[in-house]
Amino acid sequence: MIVKQIVEKALSRAQAVQAVMLTQETSSVDFENDRLKSAESSQRTQIDVKVIVDGKVGVSSTTDPQDVDGVVNRALEAAEFGSPAHFELPDAQSLDPVKIFDPALLPLEKPEMIRMGQQMMEMVKSYNPEILAGAAINKTIYKVEYANSRGAVYAADHTDFNVGAGGQLVRGTDILFASQSMGQKKRAVDTEEIAAQAIEYFRMAERIAPLESGEMPVIFTPRGFIALLLSLGLAVDGKSVHLGASPLRDKLGQQIASPSLTIVDDPFVEYGPRTGAFDNEGVARKVTPLVEKGVLRSFIYDLDTAGRAGTAPTGHGSNRSLTNLVISPGDIPYETMLRSTQSGLLVHEYLGLGQGNPINGEFSVNVFLGYKIENGELVGRVKDVMLAGNAFDALKDIVAISKEREWVSGPWVYFPGLMPYIKVGKLSVTAK
Amino acid sequence: MKQGMVHMRDQLSQALKMQDVEYADIRLEDKTNTWVNFRGPDLDAIGSGRTVGGIVRALYKGGWGYATFNDLSDLPRQVREACQTAKLVGTGTTYFSRVEPVVDVLKAQMVKDFRQVPLAEKKALVEEYNRIILGFHKNIQTSSVRYADSFKQIWFANSEGTYIEDEVPDVNLMTAAIAREGDIVQNGFETGGAIDGFQGVENFHDKARFAAQKAVELVKAPPVTGAKYTVVTDPILTGVFTHEAFGHLSESDFVYENPRMQEIMVLGKRFGVQNLNIIDDGTLPGGLGTHMYDNEGVPTRQNYLIKDGILVGRLHSRETAAKMKEQVSGNARSVHFQHPPIVRMTNTYIDQGTVAFEDMIKDIKLGVYAIKAIGGETAMEMFTFSAAYGYMIRDGQVAELVRDVVLTGNVFNTLMNIDQIGNDLGWEPNGPGGCGKNDQHPLRVGLGGPHIRIQNCVVGGQQ
Questions:
Q1: Is B258 on the interface with A (CB under 8 A)?
Q2: Residue B346 above 80 pLDDT?
């Protein structure tokens, strides 16, 4: 194993060392503007090395497996000027079993992926031939290997499968995009369901509904909940907490959201998009309850930040990335939630999310795909509408959570997870 | 890779002999980079990396096959793989503009080569800026100061005989201050850097101080009230607006296979006032998006997109130009070897007008002066971009500082609503960010323009 070679090599001058190697092969097909446009074969290698020399940390990376000496030397050089290590590398741990590899994906070749894409595109076209349809399918087989100087050695074989379909519809100067995608670690996927969902977003947008500015109830679709989730996800980052930049820094154990909201970070979901047994620092992953009945339960920490903050790492890697977010279902059907809304907005996608001051909770986003609710019905798509508010205030103002949940995943998703529809009592909407 | 360099041209042309399609090219890249990041009082990360890899593109009956790889040991195999893939895809007609083959070897010119600057010196400089921010005021909660440099060598060859060696240096810096009072947390930031050496990040002390001051002031500033205003944008925000609201629409890959979009973007159509000129220029000396050739080996050039308010041109790759029967423009760019080039902007700006800033604001009763940009995003007709901060304009005067200034609108209305164009011209400085399109981010682009005035612009925010 190259990672073990690197550890041995670096140990001649470093007191501690870890190496992580990624080896990956991807096949993908891409449909644009009603036609198969391209297909790709991709091979990737990435090696990351971290050393501790005289209590100081140095890192380096390379894409060249022949460059073992170079990557070790550059990490050692960086360590001369590095930051003091506030941690020790973890010992070998026993890892929980995870389902991350589906052998059924191995024989899947490009011609079959092309057939799947064509089928989804034809469905979209048969709903409305005016739509310029697209689809993308991507299969990745990869291996992650980890070794450190305390004897921890892990290897994991993963499969990833991403499928998406959608299109754009131009009417006059009105341009509408809608799509649906999903990402998971197994092959079994319902392409008809994906195309049907994309079609549903077009169907709901057939009419354009004028909207008046004001405060109104807002229902977030499972995908649309990112507008609030983004701030929460950034604010539970242990580094922001430690540096005092997180507004949640002193709120552990306190009520920060409606008692109906429970969010768990679960790295063990079978074939989940971010499922895995260990992180890139050799820390065993575990289930982390973030919010329980509205009470803030934990922050997430990498090794170094945990060391600085005097707490334990949570297995979210050196970048402190959340894994699969699972939000507990509520007690009413989505249909009832919608029917009980006199006038309001259903929001699904945004432009400009994350541009403002997201960690502070404040957001002000263009509603890229959203629908007006009138007398409990979706009456059309809204245009030129901004949704603004404070995510932390909105989390306290959650008035309903649906029984139904959907997987939000796929290549563009920042925080994938299993999410319900969530209704907030009142938010500010500016319409042109 | 180093020993192979002398024979690179031979290696690439040998590998390309394996191609059995209508067109093929290879692009190899070798990038070394270093980074130094402080967050708060602590050094957060210091290190260096090397990334080597390549892409082969093959074109067959209108379909593309790509092979991307880190392992350069068997280029002929990668060419065969891309060709086989293209044959799975292509069933139609190939559109691909003819261009003259080019052979050229370009060398980067740097005033102070950052590869010769010891890591210790880079760290010491970044630490100085960080200390300025942290010591600026009691309300400074923390900081984020990030330095990054990279030096990329590129080798490009195609089946038509083009062979280009290029070098792309980049050094950039971000100094950000985070201030807090009670539950209000605000950022102030300044970015800098250069494409011609380390001197571009030196002497940044005043800028770091300014970032800290802005964060401290913004904590006390109220959020802007959401409404329609007359908005004046500073040159940097003008650049972001031009790029987001209009520039992306002029990228022909959105248009070339889309008859409806072609109706909207028909050349000769009026898009703005008489004195509105929008230009994309990949040859601009010192521009962040400047290159001699794009990533298809096509020479860059100056492209007028809007002249005297009329749509006169658009940006092309060889494929989109052929399909639309227009000239190539040198705008096929790729963020790195894991991606094929797609149609992108280079340096995009609104050309200088005639109006002085004072004259622009003197008859505004209530408006917003929006300054610098945190970011922007577009979906063809709809766009949104966030100013770093703004000032209210009251009775013709610049008044109080406001935060959370997000502008949104419809490009077709908004371009028509630009009624005054300033007599100045400025460019966004280098920084860690760049343009993102599809999954290619961040691509270095130049953004600029004068102060401009936009009537009836929606500013988001709570009411």
A1: yes
A2: yes
Partner-chain contact A364 B406, CB within 8 Å: yes
Mean pLDDT of all residues in B141-156: 97
DSSP state of B112: B
Q: A110 — contact with chain B (CB < 8 Å)?
A: yes
Helix axes A191-204, A110-127, angle to 10 degrees: 30
Pairing relationship of beta strands A377-381 and A362-374 according to DSSP bridges: antiparallel
Q: With an 8 Å Cβ cutoff, is A38 touching chain B?
A: yes
Best interface-test mutation with B: which of A130, A234, A256, A351 has the largest number of B CBs within 10 A? A351
Return the ∠ at Cα B331 (arms to B329 and B336), rounded to 5°: 155
Is B257 within 8 Å of A132 when comparing Cβ atoms? yes
Concatenate the DSSP letters of all residues of B174-204 into one string: EEEEEEEETTEEEEEEEEEEESSBGGGGSS-
Of A46, A78, A352, the CB nearest to B48: A78
Using a CB-CB cut-off of 8 Å, the residues of chain A touching B433 are: none
pLDDT for the residue numbered A171: 85
Encode B293-310: b = buried (16+ Cβ within 10 Å), e = exposed: bbbbbbbbbebbbbeebb
Window 299-358 of A, Cβ < 8 Å to B: 308, 351-352, 354-357
Dist CA A124 CA A131 (whole Å)? 8
Would you say residue B146 has pLDDT above 90? yes
pLDDT 10s digits, A235-289: 999 999 999 889 999 999 999 999 999 999 999 999 999 999 999 999 999 999 9
Q: Taking residues B289-317, what's their average pLDDT?
A: 97
Q: What are phi and psi of B154, to 5 degrees?
A: -125, 135
Judge whether B322 is closer than 8 Å to chain A, CB to CB: no
For residue A408, how many other CB atoms are within 10 A of its CB? Answer: 25
Rounded-to-integer distance, Cα A49 and Cα B214, Å: 38
Q: Which residues have CB under 8 Å from B204's CB, separation 6+?
A: B129, B173, B175, B190, B192
Q: How confident is the model at residue B6 (pLDDT cuts 50, 70, 90)?
A: low
Q: CB atoms < 10 A from the CB of B178, how many?
A: 28
Residue with tokens 């080798």: B155
Within 353-382 of B, beta carbons closer than 8 Å to A belong to: 374-382
Amino acid at B432: P
Looking at beta carbons, which residues of chain B come within 8 Å of A411?
439
pLDDT tens digits along A24-39: 999 999 999 999 999 9
Phi and psi at residue A114, to the nearest 5°: -65, -45
Contacts 24+ apart (CB under 8 A), B6-13: B8/B155, B8/B165, B9/B157, B9/B163, B11/B75, B12/B75, B12/B155, B12/B157, B12/B163, B13/B157, B13/B163
| Binary contact (A61, B47; C-beta < 8 A) | yes
Pairing of strands B366-379, B342-343: unpaired
Percent of chain A with pLDDT over 70: 100
B68 touches chain A (CB under 8 A): yes
The reply to whether B225 touches chain A by the CB within 8 Å rule is no
Q: Which amino acid is at A330?
A: G
ipTM over the 0.90 cut-off: yes
Give the one of A63, A173, A384 whose C-beta lies nearest to B70's C-beta.
A63
Instruction: Determine how many CB atoms are found less than 10 A away from the CB of residue B261.
Output: 20
Q: Do B85 and A64 touch (CB under 8 A)?
A: no
β-strand partners of B460: B406
Other CB atoms within a 10 A radius of the CB of residue A111 amount to 10
Tokens representing B252 are: 């022909």
| Distance, C-alpha B25 to centroid of its chain | 25
3-state secondary structure (DSSP) of residue A23: strand
Torsion of CA A335, A339, A343, A346, to 10 degrees: 0
* Residues of chain A where predicted confidence (pLDDT) is lower than 70: 356
Give this prediction's pTM. 0.94
pLDDT at B4 over 60: no
- Whether residue B439 lies within 8 A of chain A, CB to CB, comes out as yes
